[in-house]
Amino acid sequence: MAASTGGGTGWYKGKVKAVQSGDCLVVMALSSNRPGPPPEKTITLASLISPRLARRGGVDEPFAWDSREYLRKLCIGKEVIFRVEYSVPSIAREFGSVYLGDKNVAMLVVSEGWAKGQQKGEVSPYVAELLHLEEQAKQQGLGQWSKVPGAAEASIRNLPPSAVGDPSNLDAMGLLAENKGRSMEAIVEQVRDGSTVRVYLLPDFQFVQVFVAGIQAPSMGRRAVTETVVETDLTSDKQNGDVSADEPQADLTSAQRLTASSAPSAEVSPDPFAPEAKYFTEVRCLNRDVRIVLEGVDKFSNLIGSVYYPEGESAKDLALELVENGLAKYVEWSANMMEDDAKRRLKAAELQAKKTRLRIWTNYVPPVTNSMAIHDQNFIGKVVEVVSGDCIIVSDDSIPYGSLLAERRVNLSSIRCPKMGNPRRDEKPAPYAREAKEFLRTRLIGKQVTVQMEYSRKVTMADGTVAAATPASADSRVMDFGSVFLMSPVKGDGDDASAAVPSGTGNQQPGLNVAELVVGRGFGT
């Protein structure tokens, strides 16, 4: 599965992708000749046995978590050299030797007291050294051989119901109310797809599923399974969590098999780029220390949150990285739980990925639109009429007074205000339409403004909706949209002035953005 270190030696290079227990890790190839994620192999350290983590409804053996954590922190994300020493087909496990640099990983684990050697059946070629190191660790009282009174009992985690296979007892709303917006330490235990992770929230070990806020990665589909799903471990060189229903399988921790249950037998294939999105998240987050910021819950009480993983000295936003790499799309309903800056970054990243047709956007075709960009039509003029809360008439200073072209109707781009109605059709103004118009009139009439025209759009005369892409008719007209900036904010109106960009900024606007002013006062959306 990985590049061999020498012809016929059986030694291979790889990178540790996951650590399932104190004596078991998942190693993936450094490269692959086939498309998609590289192959991987689950290796149990030969002639070694570590304390077992809690299964569904059970408890940890003493020092089980400490043992797993030692191996995780030692190996996760590191390049290793490994060799399969023997396999046990009845439990579908492969046992091997793993080297981190020039250090034998099994020897490191035993020497620190986090596992013990065993001589049953086939054995590691290093079994003698392992047994010797075990005796030394016992004498020194290291790890599970600690001589401190009560150390064994203290090492057993007090797991909440969610961590031992009973997620129904998780109070998602209570957890959100207590921690909303707060950065929480967590360890990712499973990646369901690129935008869904299952994590331990520390220090209480709540085991929860978190949907990444603001995005959705392609679905991994659904495998055909029988009605009863056995709690099993990942023991083949499949992707993490991707075990086919007919494989012989071995025991697994409850946290990793929280979702084992009855399921429909129909198989649904993964969406395009779903394995790539899942792999992207796995290599950055699986078994890593991350930060979770809970943003909200959906109608099914599923937790929605932002995930931040470490990269060097900085923290990366998983949602933004997935979208920037064309492996997830922006989702408005969950993005609305986030801060405005985070939403804007996600939207901009998706737009760029669409423009470059990156991965999931490979076959993206922009929707047909009646909008046309307006180029080189910026001008300065005086506001001579306010038609509504989002439409004004400006007299262009560059055109001679009295010319029919001097007065230009400008609709504020990207916002919508209550409609003024149409007396000819007996249409009454919408609620707050008059207030919105009056608000704008008192601030703009007779004032000098800068107008940046942006686009034009064909709309129906009847209700102002976008017209279909058909030849012009008597029932539609073309409207011009742009941004309007008030060059001198109203004196004494601090709220209005605060919408202007402070002087000295790198991307300074030519004045107070009128659209922002309208939206900020609640007269537009």
TrEMBL record:
Domain TNase-like: 10-147, 182-363, 377-525
Pfam families: SNase
GO cellular component: cytosol; nucleus
Alphabetical list of InterPro entries matching this protein: SNase_OB-fold_sf, Staphylococal_nuclease_OB-fold
SMART domains, per database record: SNc
GO MF terms held by the record: nuclease activity; RNA binding
Protein name stated in the entry: TNase-like domain-containing protein
Organism encoding this protein: Gossypium lobatum
